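Batch job 17 of 40 flagged for manual review because the log was empty.
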Amino acid sequence: MIDVKELRFRYPGHRLYTLKGLNFHIPQGEIFGFLGPSGAGKSTTQKILIGMLKQYEGSVSIFGKQLKEHGRDYYNSIGVAFEFPNFYSRFTALENLNLFRSLYDVPTEEPENLLAQLSLSEYGRTKVSDFSKGMKMRLNLCRALMHRPDILFLDEPTSGLDPVNASTVKDIILQQKALGKTVILTTHNMFAAEELCDRVAFIVDGEIKLVDAPRELKVREGKKAVTVEYREGTTLRRADYQLDGIADNEAFQDLLRGGSIETIHTQEATLDQLFIRVTGRTLT
């Protein structure tokens, strides 16, 4: 679906490159996450892929065709939701969606149905100027899904959402994957990335440091051990056991049989820990 080779980009008037030779491939039906701190190059990469920034170096192939060769019809195939959405604030939600709907040359969803999916039905005739950030984020996703795109570009899709609405947005993203859609997610929210992404790319200072599935990264880079918290009388104690040979570890077996166990956790690394370890940077 997307094949990028030696992608480099430098903003006009800047001496240094923002992107320094990115290489990645995203197959159809995958949720692919770009993870990195502010200024790492995530948004620049997204803007190139959606056609906003054109003076790049390297190869960007989408739908088996160089991006520079795509015409206006390319925008019938992609949906974009930026973190800070712009709408016509004096228009209602439905007026905004109907306006954007008119720009496409392909069949579109009914705006009312999209609003219902994002729990916005009762606000369809409310002016967007009266929307909270979280409501605008949900309306933004409605707009991105309007024309049933094959590729979704989502920038911090759960930003500003309460847990219930964040869960709804995640479910919709997973539904799109089930329909065979490809999703490119840019975020610094490791929890959202871990829940949603098939693979993630750690990007910092315009370079991709590591690409793999979140689970594979956590297992490969974590400790092969288990931590047990248990009670001895009123005292909470903790013991660590190596996973290798744990079935024959008598102390562990005795604890399982007779201890007052409260928690058992494996010690795989978190994505936050891995990012810091690999890049030397935090996600702030």
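Reviewer: the log was empty due to a logging misconfiguration, but the result itself is present. The longest strand covers residues 223-232. Unflagging and moving on to job 18.
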